[in-house]
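Chapter summary example: a protein plus 3-methyl-2-oxobutanoic acid.
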Amino acid sequence: MSVHKEVKRITTNTLQEMKAHGEKIAMLTAYDYSMAAIVDEAGMDIILVGDSASNVMAGHETTLPITLDQMIYHASSVVRAAKRALVVVDLPFGSYQGNSKEALNSAIRIMKESGAHSVKMEGGVEISESVTRILTAGIPVMGHLGLTPQSIYKFGTYTVRAKHEAEAQKLREDALKLQELGCFAIVLEKIPASLAKEVSESLNIPTIGIGAGQHCDGQVLVIHDMLGINKSFKPRFLRQYASLSEVMNGAIKNYVNDIKSKSFPNEKEQY
Ligand code: KIV
């Protein structure tokens, strides 16, 4: 008799049920096989292969430089590790804004070449044609509203969005539009908690917040930030669960010292 326990994959339907039952959704980024395996094993519902890889993996100032090929490389590594989590992959800047055919081709490449389960796109009504075309091909789409980092040069800063009524109203309309088109969830980034609450309550699909307060249906963070690998980034919304940069720095310093002092390797650590 096999003692192998089947792991049940989280699907977009599972997320819908979680919202209906009031169970919060846990989402975290990952960009490589080893980290994704740890994240998946810990019980994450959604792993986001975010274009934040451009910042935390490649060291760019913004998310704009990362390419579709690079996103596919990160996504395929994560997919090989994720046994339970739903894997969502960001369509990178420039791969979907041009026209809906290009958007569909980009989404198809991600699904075919990485084996991921869905894509995420930033924007509202402006990208509705592309969202529709991708959904029509059977690819689940997660929306992303509020602070949309691919538009950072339009905003000029990373401060809280939709504080004023005109922008808040556009966000309400965009959220409804994305739901109407068939998106399975929407990320709400850095908007007032009261607005995120209102939007979350008005939608049937789950909202996933980052800096959008406690009333979203789920939460997402960037793994390097919440593990304290990235020391310099400390916004108010971030809860840091570990100080890995200090742990890693200490371990690596010990390694250097052991080599210099000739204590590594010792007799038991050689053949
Ligand atoms: O790229 C990313 O990591 C994201 C999250 C911040 C939601 O889009």
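Key point: The first helix runs from residue 12 to 21.
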